[in-house]
Amino acid sequence: MPTEHGTINPMPPTPAKKKPAKSPAKKSPSKKRSAAAELPKRKPARRDLDPERIESILTILRDTYPDVECALVHASPWQLLVATILSAQCTDVRVNMVTPKLFQTYPTPQAMADAPIESIEELIRTTGFYHNKAKSIQGAGRVIHEQFGDKVPQTMAELLTVPGAARKTANVVLGVAYGKAEGVVVDTHVFRLARRLGLTRSETPQKVEQDLMKVIPRDRWIQLSHELIHHGRQICEARKPKCAACPLETLCHAPDKTWSS
Ligand code: SF4
To answer: What is the CATH number of domain 188-251?
Structure first.
């Protein structure tokens, strides 16, 4: 019986067979190629986490920066804690310019806790966000004096109770002052480089740290962050990474690699 197909197509047997050919993707070899070209984008992520590749990255970084260390000048865990709080949104060079007078004026946690807040603010003003930072370091002084007997605590859980100390600050203090690897310091440089090097695809510092802790051996957590921070400052800069001068170039699949140094 002439069906309604017949009214659309004068050759009833053909429509069913023609259906598969309707896909423009199958008709066009160029589309086929472009669809295939999409696939490799996912593959590097798996290759990126290959243990041998990660080991190569770690070896190159260690050999390139064998003596690199925390750039914040300090003479005690307390001074390091304060300097790290001040380093938020500020260069280490700038922090090192203000801390000598700050520690000379208020040398202990108790002295910092008892100081007039305006005086602390004035001393740290050039590090930026000085209202909040003054509150944090005064609060840190109070808590460390009253609850920890003037000693900066040595555990992540305790450090996270100190005003101004989130995981990054706690990891700096634990790693640099006490040699304890309880996590990986993820500052702006480590965050950027970990993503460029394909060690993580996460988009928050907390998740990046968790990802790094899974793929990096624990005995490299402390030093690796120093190396990445140094590499980020010297070579893998945020806006214009100097890829032509980078010892990691052959291992790096960053989409924003550049070739001008
Ligand atoms: S090759 Fe370029 S993007 Fe990759 S780590 Fe080196 S400087 Fe950074």
So the answer is: 1.10.1670.10
CA of 252 to the centre of ligand 1 (A): 6
Percentage above 90 pLDDT, the chain: 78
- DSSP code string of 214-259: HHS-GGGHHHHHHHHHHHHHHTS-SSS--GGG-TTGGG---TT---
Q: Indicate which residue's Cα is closest to atom 2 of ligand 1.
A: 243
Fold classification of 77-178 (topology level): Endonuclease III; domain 1 (1.10.340)
Beta carbon of 80 within 6 Å of any ligand 1 atom: no
83 alpha carbon – ligand 1 mean position (Å): 29
How far apart, in Å, are the Cα atoms of 240 and each of 11, 186, 194, 235, 261? 63, 20, 16, 9, 8
Residue 187 bears catalytic tag: yes
Could you give the C-alpha distances from 158 to 65, 85, 131, 147, 171, in angstroms and in order? 32, 16, 24, 10, 12
Nearest to residue 252, comparing CAs of 36, 37, 47? 47
Q: Which of 180, 147, 185, 179 is nearest to 166 (CA)?
A: 185
Question: Mind listing the pLDDT tens digit for each residue in 4-63?
Answer: 333 333 333 334 444 444 444 444 444 444 444 444 444 445 688 999 999 999 999 999
